[in-house]
């Protein structure tokens, strides 16, 4: 089963919180309050997101955190990779040469193709899309694109 961790879900909530500010900064404390997360959790995730270039931090009395880019320029693949690591369904789908059985494997290429299709679909979904509350946003388009990628 493909599933994001609870911390990734929380990190996405933080990014969504910052996305509605249009470039303004918020303190970690305020972000924690607005998202209903515990402050240490919010601080940990903000540090991780800043380390991957998704948020910027500013020191000082008027400092805080803000998105490093517009919400429409940050995609779900970047968020997942920042919080979970590389998108890889199997060891060999991220990088070849990771498995001693690779020379004898007849399915590794298929897993890499599936991995590319999933990553491609995730790059199509932006933080702006993630914030939309309309049920089923773009699901038909993404399903069609996923099918097209699999056919390649």
Labels describing this entry:
mainly alpha, two-stranded antiparallel sheet, 152 residues, elongated
How would you portray this structure in words?
The chain is built from eight helices and two strands. Helix 1 (6-19) packs across helix 2 (28-35). With 152 residues, it is mainly α. 55% of the residues lie in helices and 5% in strands. The model has no long low-confidence stretch (mean pLDDT 84). Strands 1-2 form a two-stranded antiparallel sheet.
Question: Into which percentage range does the β-strand content fall?
Answer: 5-15%
Helix-strand string: HHHEEHHHHH
How helical, in percent, are the residues?
40-55%
Report the sheet with the most strands, covering strand number, pairing sense and barrel closure. Answer: 2 strands, antiparallel
Radius of gyration from the alpha-carbon trace, in angstroms: 18 Å
- Counting DSSP E segments of at least 2 residues, the number of strands comes to 2
The rounded distance between the terminal residues' Cα atoms is: 24 Å
Q: What's the total helix number?
A: 8
The parts where pLDDT drops under 50 for at least 5 residues are none
The pLDDT mean sits at: 84
Widest sheet: strand order?
1-2
Structural category: mainly alpha
Form type? elongated
């Amino acid at each position: 089963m493909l599933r994001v961790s609870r911390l990734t879900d929380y990190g996405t909530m933080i990014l969504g919180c910052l996305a509605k500010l249009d470039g303004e900064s918020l303190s970690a404390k305020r972000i924690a309050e607005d998202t209903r997360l515990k402050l240490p959790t919010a601080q940990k995730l903000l540090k991780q997101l800043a380390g991957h270039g998704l948020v910027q931090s500013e020191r000082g009395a008027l400092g805080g955190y803000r998105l490093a880019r517009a919400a429409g320029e940050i995609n779900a693949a970047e968020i997942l990779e920042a919080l979970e690591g590389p998108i890889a369904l199997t060891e060999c789908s991220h990088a070849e040469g990771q498995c001693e059985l690779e020379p004898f494997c007849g399915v590794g290429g298929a897993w890499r193709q599936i991995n590319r299709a999933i990553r491609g679909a995730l790059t199509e979904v932006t933080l702006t899309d993630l914030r939309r509350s309309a049920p089923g946003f773009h699901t038909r388009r993404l399903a069609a694109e996923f099918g097209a990628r699999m056919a390649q």
